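User: I want to check something. If I give you two sequences, will you return the structure for each one separately, not as a complex?

Assistant: Yes, each is folded on its own. Here is the first sequence with its structure:
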Amino acid sequence: METALKNCQKELKEEKAKLSELKEHFKYNLRLLNDRDVELQRYDALFLGNIQHAYCSATTGYLCMHVTQKNLLCSDFMVKFIFTLLKNERFTNCLY
């Protein structure tokens, strides 16, 4: 009976050690996932910023190219339209 008790205590100690190790692995993996999420959010913001910049550059570039290629003198309306676009919040980051 005493031997059985010692065996049970030994097994309990081993299982507690395994549980402790699993907890540490879980905490480590959770930290990795959190760090990865932060990095992915940073990349998403960077990617969306690049897309917006490319869109803005293409749009303003197209307007300028269109006016230049046609050798048109901009009417007051066209000048106001272009400046309105450039002042628009979506286009504020488009300049350079």
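And separately, the second sequence with its own structure:
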Amino acid sequence: MSHISDDSSTTKIITDINVTPMVDIMLVLLIIFMVTATYITRQAIDVNLPEAKTGEEVSTTTLGLVVAADGSLFLNGERVTLEELEAKTKALAKENPELQAVVDGDKSVSYGRVMEVIDTLRSAGVKNFAAAVEFKED
């Protein structure tokens, strides 16, 4: 145990716990869980993406929207209706005018359904879009 001595020649025992290292570890764990949660959510929804030779990685995605094979919608991993999508997106677009949406549309979903979703996003204030594809090998 550590001891502190003062001018009066008495010794006091330090009984406080230093929590700084524990807080550092907890913050690192929080960051790791936040990063891996996005990958787990994306893999949990089974979507058969179309392939394209010109596909690129998207570095920052504010909104992740999945249109599943049955036409159901998932906003950042949460199942939503078209009306809920519009309401939630309007609120997010007010907070961030540079809001970007990446649409993962299953290739078996009709073009009309995907356009309906994009039209809903545009009317809610989202101006930047990207379509998610899998890279096609030559």
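Because they were folded independently, the notes below concern the second chain alone. The first strand starts at residue 3 and ends at 5. The longest helix spans residues 20-44.
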